[in-house]
Amino acid sequence: MKISLGRQSILLLGVNGLFVLAGALSGTFLNVYLWKSRPDYAMLGWFTISQQLALGLTFWLAGKWVKEHNKMSALRLGTALSGTFYMLVLWAGPKAVDWIWPLGILLGCALGLFWIAFNVVYFEVTDRENRDLFNGWVGLLGSMTGIIGPWFSGLIISKMVDNSGYRLIFTVSLIIYVIAVVFSFFLKKRKVSGTYRWSEPWQQLSRSGSEWRPLGLGLVAQGVREGVFAFLIALLVYVATEQEYKLGQFSLITSAVALVSYWMAGKWFKPHYRSKGMLTGAIILFVVLLPLIWKVSYGTLLIMGIGSALAMPLYMLPMIAAGFDLMGMSGENVEKRVELVVLRELCLMTGRLSGLAVFILIVMNGPSLQMLTWLIVVLGAFPLIGWIFMRKMLTQTQQ
């Protein structure tokens, strides 16, 4: 039987693609922009922590609106606030570093609103049969935007004087966010049902024998790595080369590899491969970090980036699909889909904040490149820990 996606799924992919493109254009260079104003690792760590706190709390608080009212308005508001964030960065200019917490909170709220709505709608427009296909397309579009966006941004920023290139790119992102809001109006308003249960995430995790426990621990482990890697790797590429163009080139190469790997995963990766695939991906994600122990250079970072791009679909697709499969296991879980999406994000937030807390402690005591390298290697082992937590559940779902 041929597996395909419906019209609403394709529209949702389009909105997601525009949102990710806008983020790829500016988000890749946002931390570099802040770093050039104030070269301070701790400042960037606190900026990321403020985002993650706001993102997790927004998921939890906005869950009520998404479940009981109009989830499409949350998606549009999140997109609009993302545009507002870049508008404020443009207005603040180099003084944006003096407003790290309010700007981080605004960006976190924007991302939280968009992604809680996207994840719930994604669950509603896909099923167990085409979920891996949809995930593959999400990864494919993310890789395509990762190829085009940062390379284009790096080229423009390098060619223009002072910070004029940054201002242009941030303006382009603002325009794309507006277009994404327009596209979102073609998505149908989804039905709402039930009452939002504020304590459901905690009840699910505290219940004896809950299948959400191993998944929750796996998500925490994923978040430990993700919280730091999301901003530090790109910054290290810039620090090693001192060229925005090189950072754009790095993203172009790694995203091109990811495009191929996500395309292959979306086409051939099946549910019965999930456990072995996730383990293989976790091992590769760790091994490609080891060259950094000898030297942190553009070359070793590129080895890490290419290896990670190859392995990430093997690791991420089982993680994502397993969670959404649990949501669809029973009518009761389907009814609680909003709360369960919130549960996923709170687990990821816990992991991200844990990793960032360790990062802050290290850089506040006088960071060295060697210390940061060992931190990257240690955090890079956490996907293996995530697989250990989830291996039994993955084995059961593939039967």
Automatic annotation (TrEMBL):
Q: Where in the cell is it found?
A: Cell membrane
Question: How does the record classify its membrane topology?
Answer: Multi-pass membrane protein
For this protein, the parts annotated as crossing the membrane are 12-35, 41-62, 74-93, 99-122, 134-153, 165-187, 215-241, 247-265, 277-294, 300-326, 346-365, 371-390
Superkingdom to which the source organism belongs: Bacteria
Kindly list the GO CC terms recorded for this protein. plasma membrane
Q: What is its main location?
A: membrane
Could you list this entry's UniProt keywords, alphabetically sorted. Membrane, Transmembrane, Transmembrane helix
Name of the molecule in the record? MFS transporter
Species in which this protein is naturally found? Paenibacillus xylanilyticus
